[in-house]
Design a protein that fits this description.
This protein is an alpha+beta fold. Among the domains are: 21-210 and 305-465, Sodium/glucose cotransporter, CATH 1.20.1730; 221-281. Helix content is 64%, strand content 6%. The protein has helices spanning 9-32, 36-41, 48-59, 62-75, 80-96, 98-103, 109-117, 120-153, 157-208, 293-296, 309-323, 328-334, 340-357, 361-371, 375-378, 384-392, 398-432, 440-458, 467-491, 497-521, 534-544, 547-564, 573-581; strands at residues 226-229, 234-238, 242-250, 253-261, 264-268, 273-276, 284-285. Strands 1-6-3-4 form a four-stranded antiparallel β-sheet. The chain has a three-stranded antiparallel β-sheet with strand order 5-2-7. Helix 3 (48-59) runs antiparallel to helix 12. The protein is globular, with a radius of gyration of 24 Å. It starts with 8 loop residues before the first helix and ends in a 16-residue tail after the last helix.
Length: 597
């Protein structure tokens, strides 16, 4: 939350300018979108470079702009695997899915499921999964918007979610996919500029301060007298005795004065104000342990108290590598390319652009350990990117840098939310609202409103996971469902309707259950080593990172059930496989293989 006396108008101006630019660029699509194809896939005429910018715009979400830096601050260099996984997932998509998926001629993932398997039942299940994954991915965008707006203006948390939902809805209903393409391409370059330029300024300030080394420090300590306000009640872990000035509730006891916090778990009430003396070790929220600089900078060390780090690492990578190809808002982008070759070129450009972006978030995490360690007391480490300018720069430099970062953060929320809204609205309008409204375009717009409304309402609740962790769970669900469907559907003729249905049900049920338990109970099941035993801690790790066991299970079920139900192989499988794997230049201009306009 902002400090008293902090100017709020620069942050509000940043949000307003980004919102107006988004609505203005989206309105251009209204003049260009006239047909159903315009609304769903931009008439399949988006060039690779333009499409790559749009893909990066919607892919670089709150988890990338804010969440990665917050996790680096908390858990150290292990979190860099998030950036690696987010980018490398496109290599898998490039090799296995991009071109065949574009040649399928489908609008959405459920379209592909029906084209490949000839089953309305599989299509309906795929539709439910698209909506579920989309809402799960949208939730941290609205939560992040609330956190960002509260951090820079002090507004209630629900305001940010409403602002993002309103702007996204306006831009999407204006012109569908064509409109969103313009918006997301613009927002990607805004995000890249917003996260890269401040690094230069902050690096100069860091050098002027003697270039302190985050890896060489001990446990995070307050560099100067620091006052922390707690918007919510928190359970904190005290590693070593520390005397602080507290105004508020300490273990439900009203307190006003200096108190000595002894090692152990302590509860601070909502609205409490804690003043840390210079040089004091910062208490951490319960689910995080204090770690010295060497552990923080050591890969696979379990810094921050996350148990079973090796399992978590490989399960996370599996989710990110294989979940990318199953994200509905990413895949729908490949349907907008003119052909399969353009889809491959788009993927290559995406990898380069993502690699450039992910060079910067780790810097903010490292600077946060030095200049904003008090965030470990509140648990709101996702705010570190937004708070660093005020911590590191004097005025008048802090204000414009903070404005730029705020603009970039809201561009991240808006662009990702726009892409997810398009993908969810497309499925809702085709499978839930088809025939209920006069036109498919009207159905798309109604579906967009429903796609935004549900996660906006859910965002009013408090998540027990960080932004990046919540997005990682969405990747795990996608990897456990659509990844086996796409890989086997594209490359194995033996996949049957029954096998696909069984695999989607098993993978989706297992992954979704793990996600719901993790979001509901958070760190109480993630295994901190003190509140739960080692067995429970491992169960918590399995639930927090489920991809390592849910993805192989889904593949095994699809293959096994298909082998025992070979009679349900679609009769049209030969024709479909030819369509998926035949280069466009060889496609006949007649019958089921005619070239699309």
């Amino acid at each position: 939350m902002v400090s008293p006396g902090t100017a709020v108008w620069p942050a509000v101006l940043s949000v307003v300018l980004v919102a107006l630019a988004t609505i203005g660029v989206g309105a251009v699509g209204l003049r260009l979108s006239r047909t159903t194809s315009d609304f769903y896939v931009a008439s399949r005429m988006i060039s690779p470079r333009w499409n790559a910018s749009a893909i990066c715009g919607e892919y670089l979400s709150a988890a990338s702009f804010l969440g990665v830096a917050g996790l680096v601050l908390t858990f150290g260099v292990d979190i860099l695997w998030y950036a690696v996984g987010y980018t490398a997932g496109y290599l898998v998509l490039l090799a296995l899915v991009a071109a065949p998926l574009r040649r399928s001629g489908a609008y959405t993932l459920p379209d592909f499921a029906e084209i490949r398997l000839g089953s309305r039942t599989v299509r309906r299940l795929a539709s439910l999964l698209v909506v579920g994954i989309g809402w799960l991915y949208l939730l941290p965008q609205f939560q992040g918007a609330g956190l960002a707006l509260r951090t820079v203006t002090g507004a209630p948390r629900w305001v940010g979610g409403l602002v993002v939902g309103f702007v996204v809805l306006l831009s999407v209903v204006a012109g569908g996919m064509r409109s969103v393409t313009f918006v997301q391409a613009f927002q990607f370059w805004l995000k890249l500029t917003a996260i890269a330029v401040p690094v230069v300024v902050l690096a100069v300030a860091w050098r002027s301060d003697g270039a302190p080394d985050a890896a060489a420090s001990g446990v995070p300590t307050a560099r100067e007298v620091t006052t922390v306000r707690l918007p919510d009640a928190v359970r904190i872990r005290v590693e070593e005795p520390v005397t602080v000035r507290l105004v508020g509730l300490l273990d439900d006891v009203p307190t006003d004065g200096d108190v000595r916090l002894e090692p152990g778990i302590t509860v601070l009430g909502a609205g409490s104000e804690v003043r840390l003396p210079a040089g004091a070790a910062v208490p951490h929220i319960e689910g995080v342990r204090a770690s010295d600089g060497q552990a923080w900078a050591q890969p696979n060390s379990g810094a921050g108290g996350r148990d079973h780090p090796t399992y978590r690492l490989y399960s996370l990578l599996l989710a990110l590598f294989f979940g990318t190809m199953g994200l509905p808002h990413v895949l729908v982008r490949f349907y907008t390319n003119p052909d399969g070759r353009a889809a491959r070129r788009t993927t290559l450009v995406v990898i380069g652009l993502l690699g450039a972006f992910y060079l910067f978030p780790p810097f903010y995490g490292a600077m946060g350990r030095l200049y904003a360690p008090d965030l470990l007391l509140t648990g709101r480490t996702d705010a570190v990117v937004l708070l660093l300018p005020a911590r590191m720069l004097p005025e008048p430099w802090a204000t414009p840098v903070s404005m730029l970062l705020t603009a970039g953060a809201f561009a991240a929320f808006l662009s990702t939310s726009s892409g997810l809204t398009v993908s969810v609205a497309g499925v809702l309008s085709q499978d839930l609202l088809r025939g209920r409204l006069r036109s498919s375009v009207r159905g798309f717009r109604f579906g967009a409103a429903l796609a935004v409304a549900v996660p906006t309402l859910l965002s009013f609740a408090t998540l027990r996971t960080s932004l990046a962790d919540t997005v990682g769970l969405a990747f795990a669900v996608a990897a456990s469902t659509f990844c086996p469907l796409l890989v086997l559907g594209i490359w194995w003729r033996g996949l049957t309707r029954t096998g696909a249905l069984a695999g989607l049900l098993v993978g989706g049920t297992l992954a979704s259950t793990a996600v719901l338990v993790t979001i509901a109970f958070g760190t109480s099941l993630s295994g901190s080593g003190t509140t739960v035993g080692s067995a429970a801690g491992f169960v918590g790790a399995l639930l927090a990172q489920p991809a390592a066991w849910t993805v192989p299970t889904a593949f095994a079920v699809m293959v096994g059930v298909s082998l025992i139900t070979r009679t349900s192989v679609p009769a049209s499988v030969g024709r479909t496989m030819v369509r998926l794997h035949t280069p466009e230049r060889l496609v006949l201009d007649r019958g089921p293989f005619r070239r699309e306009p």
